[in-house]
Amino acid sequence: MVGPVTSPYQDKNLVTQDRRIARTTVPLTHEEADKTEVKPLVGLVKNASGDGVTLGLGGQKAEKAETPPQGSAESVGIVAAAVILFIAFGSLVAMGLPIVTALLAIAAGIALMKLVGYLVPSPDFTVILAAMIGLGVGIDYALFIVTRYKDSLQAGDEPETATVKAITTAGHAVLFAGTTVVIALLGLIVMEQRLMTGVAVATSVIVLVTMIAAVTLLPAFLGFAGHKINSLRLPRRTSRRQKAASAASRERISGFEGLPGRTRRRGPRGGRGHGHGV
């Protein structure tokens, strides 16, 4: 430690009004203390509790020391989303666009969230929570637009026209859905708890950035992809129903061509097939 330690018996501001909680500040010798150095101290203080008195350490270093190591939840979510999208679209390019858009939006959203954190502080777990929410809504919003874009291409539209149709139709739905989610998250501010206020503001920033990326960044990707959005397709087996429908269609065509009176033989050009006498 460095510097004096003020006792709560000397400073009345360190004791709550109900006189149930008292605190004091313990300066550390190293401002950048490692987690492995702080964790034993946290356990030592907790073990000293007893006789109706509960002891504990607070502050940023203690919170990080008590936070369990994070698992691979984000990686599992990305892999699961990639598999589902690949099966749904049947194309690596169409599968990659929603995921890439969501990841770039999350990176930009976390950077903006860190800046907002100077005004509205949030707990450490907010980054993980916001990343998971951003991954879900980001892929969902991009999925709307990519699906509409592919439908327009199948209808015979050019890539530029298909992009415009996708934004003017599915893009409006994305803006409406994203705005609704942001309003719902900001509703946590009504609880008037600093912890939930920071979580609400941080997650709403992520959702806002992913929504903007879906209607601005994704159309640019679609412009580069063009008709190649169906490239690297997944080989699919033709179902029995499709085979039966195809066979029935060929039978109808062959039966139609074999009906009498459906063919007409024309004579030489300029005549009607009649002979000319001399």
Please explain how this structure is put together.
There is one protein chain. 61% of the residues lie in helices and 0% in strands. With 278 residues, it is an all-alpha fold. The protein folds into 2 domains: 1-47, no CATH class; 74-230, Up-down Bundle (Multidrug efflux transporter AcrB transmembrane fold). It starts with 34 loop residues before the first helix and ends in a 21-residue tail after the last helix.
CATH architectural designation of the largest domain? Up-down Bundle
**SSE pattern, N- to C-terminal:** HHHHHHHH
Instruction: Find the structural class using helix and strand composition.
Output: mainly alpha
CATH topology of the largest domain: Multidrug efflux transporter AcrB transmembrane fold
Number of strands: 0
What does the overall shape look like? elongated
Count of alpha/pi helices: 8
Largest sheet: none
Just give the CATH class of the largest domain: Mainly Alpha
Distance between the termini: 129 Å
How many structural units, i.e. domains? Answer: 2
Computed over alpha carbons, the radius of gyration is 33 Å
Helix content: 55-70%
Q: Tell me the fraction of residues in β-strands, as a range.
A: under 5%
The stretches of 5 or more residues where confidence is low (pLDDT under 50) are 261-265, 269-278
Task: Give the key terms.
278 residues, mainly alpha, 2 domains, 0% strand, elongated, disordered C terminus
Would you summarize the structure shown here?
This protein has helices at residues 35-47, 60-66, 73-89, 92-116, 126-154, 159-186, 194-225, 240-257. By secondary structure, it is an all-alpha fold. The protein folds into 2 domains: 1-47, no CATH class; 74-230, Up-down Bundle (Multidrug efflux transporter AcrB transmembrane fold), CATH 1.20.1640.
